[in-house]
Amino acid sequence: MFVDSHCHINFPELAQNIDQVRASMLTNEVGHALCVSVTLDKFPEVLALAEQYPNIYASVGVHPDYEDIQEPTVAELVSLADHPRVVAIGETGLDYFRLTGDLNWQRERFRTHIRAARATGKPLIIHTRNAAEDTLRIMQEEGAAEVGGVMHCFTESWEVAQGAIEMGFYISFSGIVTFKNAVALKEVAQKVPLASMLIETDSPYLAPIPFRGKTNQPAYVRHVAEEIAKLRDIPLQQVMDATTSNFFSLFKHAQPCN
Q1: Strand, helix or coil at 249?
Q2: H or E segment to which residue 109 belongs
């Protein structure tokens, strides 16, 4: 089955219809999903879903877009990650698109997450937008390669993908790869080795074609896989097998369920 390696099903758009969301996953052969934390105050919602459903996993972290909120410490992230259903640290990273000015706080927060990941041995979920150079530099400076992780919702160049892969990171493609105007990203999806690839929805955002503009959900990760199979001219089953195997290789604390 497929795995949605990055979603936010604790957000109201999906949480209020969780039974329907899970049923749709099954119908579309999506067996597992990783629900990703974006703030500490909402982390209990993320964890509750992972505790309730054996095919849902959790991460803990604070997204770089949130400025005036509780700032995480290494000790706090390590403590919250000390739970069998928490399989990753993040999402974390840098975003110079939505925020401007002095963003040193964002870089320091990113370093905090990498240090927490190294302390826990759990991989990183990294968000980068208009900040690839600084993202890769901080990953190198903080030893992110020690734990590895994933560059989620990847929209950067092939050169950036190569830099991340060299540090043992996976490249995850979202519904954006199905968009007609995502020509450069489609080329990257053709080049990234299957052994270094994951797929995701980032739901409830970024619904793939043919659902663009509507609320996204984990079931739609199948359309991401279909696009990649088409771009690479390979069987859909090959994309499914590789990305599912990669997910459980990376997130070692995630136990597959039948």
Answers
A1: helix
A2: helix 104-120
